[in-house]
Design brief:
Blueprint (H helix, E strand, L loop, with lengths): L1 E8 L11 E11 L2 E7 L2 E7 L5 E2 L1 E6 L1 H7 L4 E14 L3 E8 L7 E6 L3 H6 L6 E4 L8 H4 L5
Antiparallel strand pairs: 1-5, 1-9, 1-10, 2-3, 2-7, 3-4, 4-6, 7-8, 8-9
Length: about 150
């Protein structure tokens, strides 16, 4: 089960370059239900996500580089590319800060995953976060993959 909240970003945190960063490329074989392939640095993953906004089923399966390259031309819509910074928060949580590239250059979102819904509902974001867009489907990557830009 994935439990996460998503936020637009008002301003970037200081010393962003000091945090671990990953390059992500992902594309969608299906958006209802979500079936996604992702390359994160040198690892490859096939993901299934069930319905939902803040809480939903999520299953990840490893792919080989060859399998990823075979599936990539079979995807629909935009290929999403972004840099993801991993920022520790409150000793227990990690902020995943996504700086989108390519067609969505300029979009900056933060996601925070939680162990349970109570923790998610009681979360107070840092001041540099902007609007909470958890319940807006237009900020899901699967929705972005289908948009003309």
């Amino acid at each position: 089960m994935e439990i996460e909240r998503k936020f637009l970003i008002r301003q970037l945190p200081k010393h962003l370059e000091s945090y671990p960063c990953h390059f992500i490329e992902q594309a969608y074989l299906c958006t209802s239900p979500v079936v996604r392939i992702r390359r994160q640095d040198d690892s490859y993953i096939l993901t299934y996500k069930g319905a939902g906004m803040m809480s939903r089923e999520e299953y990840n399966l490893p792919l080989t580089k060859e399998a990823y390259q075979h599936l990539l031309p079979k995807t629909d819509g935009n290929i999403i590319t972004k840099k993801r910074y991993l920022i520790p928060f409150n000793d227990e949580l990690t902020i995943e800060l996504d700086l989108f590239q390519g067609k969505f250059d300029g979009l900056i979102l933060a996601e925070v995953e939680f162990p349970d819904e109570a923790t998610a509902n009681s979360f107070t974001p840092p001041l540099w976060f902007g609007e909470d867009v958890t319940f807006s489907g237009k900020y899901h990557n699967s929705w972005l993959s289908r948009q003309d830009v």
